[in-house]
Design goal:
By secondary structure, the chain is mainly α. 73% of the residues lie in helices and 0% in strands. The protein contains six helices and no strands. α4 runs antiparallel to α5. It is globular, with a radius of gyration of 20 Å. The chain starts with 5 loop residues before the first helix and ends in a 9-residue tail after the last helix. The N terminus is likely disordered.
Length: 165
Amino acid sequence: MPFPSMNFRASFLRPQLAALLLLLAFSPARAQQGGSQPRLERIEAARVAYLTEKLSLTSEQAQRFWPVYNEYTDKRRSLRKQGRPGGPRRPDFATMSDKEIREAINDQFATRQSELNLEKEYLDKFQKVISLRQVALLYQAERDFTKELLKRLDGRRPGARPSEQ
């Protein structure tokens, strides 16, 4: 007997799709990053599920999308690490000379420009596996996921005020 509606079919496939995506996201190539921590794994699994839902990825799209997305995030992470080689995450501008401040600001600009160039490069790569609308939704969903994650983490800090809703 065929499925009564497309909605039923989509909801039936959702758990299977989520399982497939989790397998793709935690493939041996991703596991080589070392020092895997259960908390980070849970965050990554949540990100995969969140993005999959927001983009409404089909199983075919997901199989092609996640390797490209993982490559993209690895390169973005690498750029951010290069942007602060051995230096503090937030420089102490109060103790720096004007020359050092100028260099730090220029370094920040260079890092952000490299990240922008990477996004432009991957726009074309993403469009080969998902629609342009889904690419736009991806960028929005990444920001929304990060906001939600920060809100939840902020609520867990000792002494943190409950978030206003």
